[in-house]
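Dissemination and training. As part of the outreach component of the grant, students in the summer workshop were shown how a complex can be specified as a set of sequence lines and then modelled as a single object. The example used during the hands-on session is reproduced here so that future cohorts can follow it. Participants entered these lines:
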Amino acid sequence: MEIEHVEGENKGKIFLYALSTCGWCKKTKEFLNNLGLEYSYIFVDLLEGKDKDETVDKIMKWNPRCSFPTLVINDEKCIVGYNEDEIREVLGL
Amino acid sequence: MNEANEQDVDKTYQRLDKFAESKGYHLNPDIEFTKDLIRSLLINQKRYGYWACPCRLASGKREEDLDIICPCDYRDPDLKEFGVCYCSLYVSKDIKNGEKKAEAIPDRRPPKKE
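and obtained this result:
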């Protein structure tokens, strides 16, 4: 699967489920980039078949609506949608 | 499949802007953001054959995605309640005029039934 890794400061395990076509997902990525954080992301719309189904199942455990962006932090917290304040709060920034 | 010609993006932007304004709708005044969305719609046209909402995961089956074909079924209630549609391609007049900022909103689409 096409998981991309962005180098930066480690503030915990940050995983972004995004769509390559979505403006708010792009803003979320830019926000993380501007903070200089280490994170991983995947463009779910570019997946196919089993990879796509399995990834959607994973997202739905965190966010049953399977909406984007879905950000999972340290495998324990989930932030749905582009929300700078919430990201800062959860990451303790 | 994952690219769109910039000339097509510009042309579609001009056409959509004119059409929206003629119907009393407004495109997001953040032109870069708006052109990104239009580029995405053109990519989705190539990928799926229809203008699937760029901020929702399309099934690839037109009949399952009818409600999220742009302009989606949720645009008008979202504009009324939040002043933006879900992907923020369409915005209210005060956002268009720069009096208010476009912000991300929750998805109104009912969750898929298993």
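The interface with chain A takes residues 2, 33, 36-37, 40-41, 43-44, 54-58, 87-88, 104-107, 109, 111-112 of chain B (CB under 8 Å). Students were then asked to discuss how this feature might be tested experimentally.
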